[in-house]
Amino acid sequence: MATEASKGRWLTAGLLAPSSIWFLIMLVMPLVVVAIFSFGERAPAGGYTASFTFEQYANLPARLKAFQNTLTLAPLGTVLTLLVAYPLAYYLAVKAPSRWKLALLVLVIVPFWTSLLIRTYAWIFILGGRGIPTLLEFIGIEGVRLINTPTAVVIGIVYIYLPLMVFPIFVSLEKLDKRLLEASNDLGGSPFRTFLQITLPLSIPGMATGCMLVFILLMGEFLIPAILGGGKVFFIGNALVDLFLQSRNWPFGAAVATTLVIIMLVIVSIYMRLMMRVSAHREDVSIM
Amino acid sequence: MTSPAQTDTPDIRFENATKRYGDVVAVDSLSLAIDKGEFFSFLGPSGCGKTTSLRLIAGFEQPTEGDVLIGGASMVGTPPHKRPVNMVFQHYALFPHMNVADNVGYGLRQLSPRPPKSEIQKRVDETLELVQLAEYGKRRIWELSGGQQQRVALARALICRPTVLLLDEPLAALDRKLRREMQIELQTLQRDVGITFVLVTHDQEEALSMSDRICIMRDGRIVQSGTPRELYDRPLNRYVADFVGKSNFIPGKIATVNGRSIDIESDGGMLFSCNPSTEQDTYTVGDSASIAVRPELISIGPPGSNAEALGTDVVIPGRIQNRIFLGEHTEYLVSTEKYGEILVLSPKYIESVRGSFERDEDVAIGWKNETALALEDT
Ligand SMILES: Nc1ncnc2c1ncn2[C@@H]1O[C@H](COP(=O)(O)OP(=O)(O)OP(=O)(O)O)[C@@H](O)[C@H]1O
Ligand SMILES: [Mg+2]
Predict the structure, then answer these.
(1) Is residue A230 part of a domain?
(2) Is the pLDDT assigned to residue B6 strictly greater than 50?
(3) Ligand 1 centre from B48 Cα, in Å?
(4) Which residues line the pocket of ligand 1, CB cutoff 6 A?
(5) CATH number for the B295-368 domain, one of 2.40.50.580, 3.90.1700.10, 2.40.50.100, 3.40.50.300?
(6) Which region, left, alpha or beta, applies to residue B243 given φ > 0 means left and ψ of -120 to 50 means alpha?
(7) What is the spatial distance between Cα A199 and Cα A176, in angstroms, rounded to a whole number?
(8) Where are the alpha helices (DSSP H) in A2-60?
(9) I need a labelling partner for A281 at 20 to 30 A (CA). Which of A94, B30, B237, B353 fits?
(10) Residue B317 phi, psi (nearest 5)
């Protein structure tokens, strides 16, 4: 028995080894390198020289605007994407005739087939002077500027991240047992109340996954602010591109990156705890 | 305890209700009345339209033609949440994100104005007590056994005191023993709460043992409806006789129609005198018909026994082809030369007096004329 058990343990360890090593190399090592860099100094010609100083961290307020933008527009973008994605996912999963479902789903993915860069550029024309503002002028609303504003960045975010949010919500709505809705109806719940009491709570896992996915990716976003923000609305991601590639101030870039990781860890763990609380809270919820 | 009060206005009434799905006619001009306080069952094979009939009452489906009335009022266009009926779903459809008490109280929370919290709590406790789950309010749904889930579903449907409770094969997922227990519990419950129960099942034993009245369906139509006893003793045709209990059928032609007795000439050449199962006038001389005899109404004796010895009117020689011991009965499959295989159910108390028979033994079987029924084949 004991040998069986230890054999099993070795087998588990053996099977886990490749992925553990992979995880170590791909995820932990770069983080460690970045963390070490962040305590160094910039070499005169750019790059890194070894040292141990907190100077880079003291210098962080210089990039305050990037942090502010990211920490407001990423949550805002996530929430707006959720608000746009939910009705779409709901339509696809519940209302769309079943023979159209697949075709419609493919339509949601189609944008992924062209380059992200090109799609984002397309929005320059839509939001730019000859796009929506011109249309608005036709109906008498003048002087609207969209391109290179936070609004343009948020519109871009919602557009680009929509499929990522739609899919997890679609899945959780699709697998929702339709008989539960009938049961609610049967017990006197109107369609709207049924949605609030059954459909919505049971699609929370899908919404949580979608928000998590979009939010984490948004925290590192740089393409959309670069193109639609026109250098006026920049994210931490843009600061990093600037620091690592243009000004070659690697230690300061590393400090910014490390700070971003720490902020993310804090936010994600709070979020996780919140989600746990929501599902745990339901256990002992009394009659409402 | 309220006893089921029979009143003049039926609780539920189907008036030529038809439900089509494209080309499929799921329910075909169904006309039927279910009385207040009745335990009514729809019985039939898979796909005969039982669930659809129930869904027409619940309001999940609207009749393509005809009408469904509840308490005398037409229900056409009334959505499910405005109908005074509640349903126990086949796989219970309990809400997974709520505990037992919240599931049971769901119906009350939909009322407007919503009753106060304490009132809901009280009713939930009462209803859980009714289904013997008093201590289970805080449990999660997946922490319950199948039988307990079934009871939660029952409690959830009963809490709003509907005038009619619809049950779609509520016991199908339970094992035999638990099913038996729940059948008895359901029956007791129905008498206690005194509301109309409409049950869908394809288990004839279940329907026979629980119902006040049964409606046998085939292809979306009613074949026969009546009390369990009527269906068993006076099946309208071969389909019903076959579906409700076991029966032997000997094919033949109607030879004479003569008052309360009908003579059928079997394909084997013998003339059998039978009782009619319906009004006389539907029998026409020359039509094909079957002689139907229940296995428990056939006597079995040693070879060469005469009618007097067997205590019967008919005697047929045969040979035991198979014998199955069933405890209180022995089931013999007797092969006869002219009438095929005939099933005989011989009770233990008779066996203990007359002795039993072995396989391949020659025997004589027979029955009294009045126990045989003349049945049309449809
Ligand atoms: N939504 C639907 N769309 C198309 N056809 C349907 C639909 N629901 C039922 N039917 C058809 O209607 C007929 C009756 O179905 P119903 O579900 O009422 O049968 P049932 O008697 O309950 O059978 P079972 O004992 O298998 O549950 C079947 O032929 C079925 O295929
Ligand atoms: Mg069914």
Answers:
(1) yes
(2) no
(3) 7
(4) B 21, 24, 26, 44, 46-52, 202
(5) 2.40.50.100
(6) alpha
(7) 8
(8) 2-23, 29-37, 55-58
(9) A94
(10) -80, 150
Shortest-distance ligand to the CA of residue B26: 1
Residues of A in contact with B84 (CB under 8 A): none
Number of structural domains in chain A: 1
Per-residue confidence at B10, pLDDT binned at 50, 70, 90?
confident
pLDDT band at A2 (very low <50, low <70, confident <90, very high): low
Determine, yes or no, domain membership for A288: no
Whether residue A278 lies inside any domain: the answer is no
Identify the CATH number of the domain in which residue A219 sits: 1.10.3720.10
pLDDT in tens, B160-173: 889 899 999 988 87
Domain that includes residue A119, residue range: 72-249
pLDDT of A287 over the 60 cut = no
What class is the B246-292 domain? mainly beta
ipTM computed for the complex: 0.81
Homologous superfamily of domain range B12-233: P-loop containing nucleotide triphosphate hydrolases (3.40.50.300)
Instruction: Please judge whether B80 and A182 are an interchain contact, meaning their C-beta atoms are less than 8 angstroms apart.
Output: yes
Q: What is the pLDDT of residues A104-161, one digit of tens each?
A: 988 988 888 888 888 888 888 888 878 888 888 888 887 778 888 899 999 999 999 9
Please report whether residue A259 resides in a domain. Answer: no
Contact A189 B81 (CB under 8 A): yes
B140 touches chain A (CB under 8 A): yes
Residue B279 in this model has a pLDDT that exceeds 80: no
- Chain B residues with CB-CB distance to A180 below 8 A: 93, 95-96
